[in-house]
Fold this protein.
Amino acid sequence: MQEITTIEILEKMKSSGAVFILFGGKQCKVCQVLRPQLEHMLDTHYPDMSAAYIDCEISPQICAQHSVFSLPVVQVYIEGMKISEAVRSFSVEQLRQSIQRSYSMWHENR
């Protein structure tokens, strides 16, 4: 996952292609445990999806602009449209399933 600290880079990533964004923090133990699991899911099931990590302690303005007020939060965008969001307590498998259809359609048509 690429660590992002500026809104400009994040907006550029969101506008083209598929991007998976994890909003977390160093003090969020759940975020630290979840991150490797999500990276594995992306490598296994969504190899063409870009991945970004936003540390909300370092970049609170980005988190606020994306309505992230609790952690962890995952947002998935395809061609600038949010297709999935998971907040606080969620299953990696449920998240994977929520992304699958939109990702498959995007991947076939690119």
